[in-house]
């Protein structure tokens, strides 16, 4: 590895001399995207350290490892070769002001660097602290076994049913449906959009599905494409593909009245009621079987309701505040966070919470609180059934929003080896795998086999992650190379010009509002940590860098970038990843950058974090790439007063990058090409001496940019 001598850099205002690999146009983004693609399909397996707790827009470790290596090696080194070498960035300080799930921090310490992470959201801070802190695997495993011994039987009795022969069996999942009274005749209307409630993830190969009879409630085995089914129990003929709900409307089968679901719920003033209609049980021989709900199940649920009512302060009672992401559930008349769980879930979560509170070791207790948050994510009435052949429970944040589920699934909270999203299975898949990864980190290497890319794990090239976490910048040292803090990144305790590189991923201004979603976890974390219930428990902060107003977003981002400018060494780089599908998303970034005295010196497209996300699969022109934006302080960059050639230069550079992606068989969507081109446009505008003029130019030429995108897309879509 050819490292950079930062003390002897020769960067003048007259001429910028490329000194680092990340600034070179030859940065190998196309090859790195192949590795990143492999990681993206099983992120929680390939980088489990960042998955001990839910966070949104978690970036790929492969990408940030490459960014860090490129930042600290010279332009003539090979990033691909160095990616698989044991490097030592000892003494280099890297700061991430938007820490999120901690990808930058984790990848930095794996490479031997000192890492400083800060986030305004306490949930992000909590998860990264628990992911990166020292862990005693033996004590953690024994703590789990002690918890199991104390409460396993108590919890499992609420997920037990009896077969027709009286044999008790474990219930894996209960299936529920919301219902409303018809506004016209007041009869109960089940909010099914289809009577098929279970089918395989690969239905063409495994076509058998399960449908519930709308007349008697019996479960019928059908072909997933069937449009006419005769119920095996009552003889009713029905179309399983069509039910009472279509879109936002529902119809009453009794009187035929057609009504709007949301409006009806709002008129009632409380969330819709639910009823159980089916269950999936685990037989003693290990076979799973779908059964209808019987009186035994209904009576057992009534027992949980009664037991919950007899317990005080057993769960947090916190109101949901209006917001961009919370208004959707408020419109469904969910006004408190605990209303997103049924009574059995609240009872079992409360039992689990009470036991976790008793863990004496604070560090181990906090790790189990992280695990508890995962249980929350998979065990609420906003979860749905993914079907056979995959993890059964679709967690509530699969859409990155708070979406009410009309046919929720209730999972067995303690779980079995054949469960999904349970306390026991998440302990193995999240906590234990993260610990194992910390002990023996690995990287993925792309290997072509029969014209297809496959991966192999490469061990021994990254430092184990086992450090004490510093509580201040002054505490940083070789044995304590990680400093994490929670708070406004526009104001830090980091000394001026003490950071070698800022590497981060800022939030999108109008997409996912992290604090509104994080409050779902935060109210429970406060409850477990302090046993305190307050109506002020929220992660929202007036300085968080998110707003639906692009001007407010730009101003808040500028504050953070301005602080990055202060703490960054004169010759340091600020690098971040970004994408957006609208011009105002780019103008906000440009404004924040230039007003914080930064200019863009290079941009590289790279595979983004999403490959299987629901939000991506539902998009017409999904964005599959981010752009790596490389910046220097403006005083180190030659400014320009000419806007004449910006579009022409941006077009040439964008086409070159698209062609490089095509060379490795990656086809870009129209919005992908927009990301590539806009990044190149911003690069040119960022060195213009007057920012207001540059912003005006961007607004005036946005139609030309879109026209160029169309042209590039049509030229290369079939190449």
List keywords for this structure.
globular; 719 residues; single chain; eight-stranded mixed beta sheet; alpha+beta
Rg for CA atoms = 27 Å
Q: Count all strands and give the number.
A: 26
Proportion of beta-strand residues: 15-25%
Oligomer type:
single chain
Question: What is the first-to-last residue Cα distance?
Answer: 36 Å
The helix count comes to 21
Q: What is the averaged pLDDT score?
A: 92
The side-by-side strand order for the widest beta sheet comes to 21-22-2-1-23-24-26-25
Shape: globular
How does the helix and strand content classify structurally? alpha+beta
* Largest sheet features: 8 strands, mixed
The amount of helix comes to 25-40%
Describe this structure in words.
The protein has 719 residues and is α+β, with helices and mostly antiparallel strands. It is 36% helix and 19% strand. The protein has 21 helices and 26 strands. The strands form 7 sheets. Strands 21-22-2-1-23-24-26-25 form an 8-stranded mixed sheet, with helices on both faces. Strands 3, 4, 5, 14, 15 and 18 form a 6-stranded antiparallel sheet that branches. A 3-stranded antiparallel sheet has the order 6-7-8, with no helix packed on it. The longest helix is centred in the first third of the chain and has 20 residues, at 137-156. It is globular. Mean pLDDT is 92; it is low at 5-17 and 611-619.
Chain-wise SSE layout:
Elements: H1 29-41, H2 43-46, H3 61-72, H4 79-83, E1 93-96, H5 103-110, E2 114-119, H6 122-132, H7 137-156, E3 160-162, E4 168-181, E5 188-190, E6 196-199, E7 208-212, E8 219-223, E9 229-230, E10 237-238, E11 245-246, E12 249-251, E13 258-260, H8 261-268, E14 273-282, E15 288-292, H9 295-309, H10 327-330, H11 343-357, H12 362-378, E16 384-385, E17 393-394, E18 409-411, H13 423-439, E19 442-449, E20 452-459, E21 469-470, E22 482-486, E23 499-504, H14 514-530, H15 550-567, E24 568-578, H16 583-595, E25 598-607, H17 614-617, E26 625-633, H18 646-662, H19 670-686, H20 691-700, H21 702-716
């Amino acid at each position: 590895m050819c490292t950079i001598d930062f003390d002897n850099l020769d960067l003048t205002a007259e001429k910028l001399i490329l000194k680092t690999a990340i600034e070179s146009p030859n940065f190998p983004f196309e090859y790195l995207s192949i590795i990143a693609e492999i990681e993206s399909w099983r992120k929680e397996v390939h980088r489990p350290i960042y998955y001990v707790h839910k966070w949104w827009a978690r970036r790929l470790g492969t990408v940030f490892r490459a960014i860090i290596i490129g930042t600290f090696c010279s332009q003539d080194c090979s990033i691909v070769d160095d990616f698989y070498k044991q490097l030592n960035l000892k003494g280099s300080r890297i700061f991430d002001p938007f820490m999120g799930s901690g990808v930058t921090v984790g990848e930095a310490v794996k490479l031997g660097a000192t890492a400083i992470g800060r986030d305004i959201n306490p949930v992000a801070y909590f998860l990264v602290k628990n992911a990166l802190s020292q862990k005693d695997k033996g004590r953690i495993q024994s703590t789990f076994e002690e918890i199991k011994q104390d409460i396993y039987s108590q919890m499992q009795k609420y997920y037990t049913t009896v077969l027709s022969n009286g044999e008790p069996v474990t219930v894996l999942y209960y299936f529920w449906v919301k219902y409303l009274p018809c506004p016209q005749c007041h009869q109960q209307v089940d909010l099914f959009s289809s009577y098929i409630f279970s089918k395989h993830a690969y239905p063409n190969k495994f076509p058998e599905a399960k449908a519930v009879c709308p007349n008697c409630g019996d479960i019928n085995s059908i072909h997933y494409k069937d449009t006419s089914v005769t119920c095996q129990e009552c003889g009713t003929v029905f179309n399983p593909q069509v039910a009472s709900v279509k879109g936002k409307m529902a119809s009453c089968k009794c009187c035929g009245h057609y009504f709007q679901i949301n409006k009806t719920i709002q008129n009632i003033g409380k969330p819709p009621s639910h009823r159980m209609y089916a269950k999936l049980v685990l037989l003693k021989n290990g076979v799973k079987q779908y059964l209808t709900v019987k009186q035994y199940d209904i009576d057992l649920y009534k027992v949980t309701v009664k037991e919950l009512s007899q317990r005080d302060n057993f769960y947090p009672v916190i109101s949901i505040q209006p917001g961009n992401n919370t208004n959707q559930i408020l419109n469904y008349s969910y006004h408190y966070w605990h209303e997103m769980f049924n009574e059995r879930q609240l009872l079992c979560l409360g039992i689990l919470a009470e036991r976790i509170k008793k863990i004496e070791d604070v560090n181990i207790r906090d790790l189990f609180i992280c695990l508890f948050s995962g249980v929350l994510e998979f065990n609420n009435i906003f979860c749905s059934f993914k079907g056979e052949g995959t993890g059964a429970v679709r967690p509530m944040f699969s859409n990155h929003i708070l979406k009410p589920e009309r046919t929720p699934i209730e999972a067995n909270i303690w779980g079995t080896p054949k469960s999904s999203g349970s306390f026991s299975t998440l302990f193995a898949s999240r906590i234990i795998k993260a610990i194992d990864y910390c002990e023996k980190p690995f990287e993925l290497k792309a290997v072509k086999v029969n014209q297809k890319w496959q991966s192999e794990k490469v061990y021994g090239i990254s430092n184990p992650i086992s450090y004490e976490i510093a509580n201040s910048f002054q505490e940083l040292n070789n044995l304590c190379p990680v400093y994490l803090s929670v708070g406004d990144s526009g104001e830090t305790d980091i000394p001026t010009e003490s950071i070698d590189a800022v590497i981060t991923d800022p939030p999108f201004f109008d997409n996912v509002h992290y604090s509104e979603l994080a409050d779902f976890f935060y109210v429970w974390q406060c409850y477990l940590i302090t046993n305190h219930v307050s109506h002020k428990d929220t992660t929202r902060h007036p300085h968080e860098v998110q707003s639906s107003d692009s001007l407010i977003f730009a101003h808040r981002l500028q504050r953070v970038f301005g602080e990055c400018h202060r703490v960054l060494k004169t010759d340091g780089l600020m690098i971040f990843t970004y994408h957006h599908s609208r011009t105002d998303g780019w103008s906000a970034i440009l404004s924040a950058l230039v007003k914080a005295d930064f200019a863009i010196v290079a941009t590289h497209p790279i595979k983004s974090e999403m490959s299987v996300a629901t939000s991506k699969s539902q998009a017409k022109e999904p964005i599959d790439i981010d752009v790596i934006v490389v910046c220097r302080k403006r005083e180190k960059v030659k400014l320009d007063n000419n806007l004449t050639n910006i579009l022409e230069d941006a077009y040439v550079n964008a086409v070159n990058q698209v062609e490089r992606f095509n060379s490795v068989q990656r086809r870009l969507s129209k919005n992908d090409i927009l990301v590539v081109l806009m990044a190149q446009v911003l690069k040119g505008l960022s060195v213009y001496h007057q920012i207001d003029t540059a912003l005006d130019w961007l607004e005036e030429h946005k139609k030309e940019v879109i026209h160029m995108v169309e042209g590039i897309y049509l030229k290369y879509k079939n190449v």
